[in-house]
């Protein structure tokens, strides 16, 4: 519990230290524009959060029955990265970029074929074709 409290107290100090160091190397105006641009990007992402759900839905439809756990959590990751972009600072921007990376997770089976089956599996069986005889020649299609 103390470690979490210590991290919460150190986080703002680390953000300020990175901003000051970056401003020393690049200049204050460039850092200000960078922070402003990342905050605007975060606000835009939070306003367009429906895009994350739409991307998840299209991914699920493309993959068929096999769905990754990380792809199901995409809207949550998208919203959290938007919030981290909206917070001014370089470390929060780096965390937001890490959340947006497309990680592959374990596949979940959503009621489709079993994981052991492959598309090359053959199902053997017998069939017979039964045609109904036409009563007269006028009903038959040519």
From TrEMBL:
Membrane-spanning regions, if any? Answer: 29-46, 79-101
Alphabetically sorted, this entry's keywords are: Membrane, Transmembrane, Transmembrane helix
Q: Does the keyword Membrane apply?
A: yes
Family matches, as InterPro entries:
FxsA
- Superkingdom in the source lineage: Bacteria
One GO cellular component assignment for this chain's record is: membrane
Does the UniProt entry include the keyword Transferase? Answer: no
User: What protein is this chain from?
Assistant: FxsA family protein
* Species annotation: Aquitalea palustris
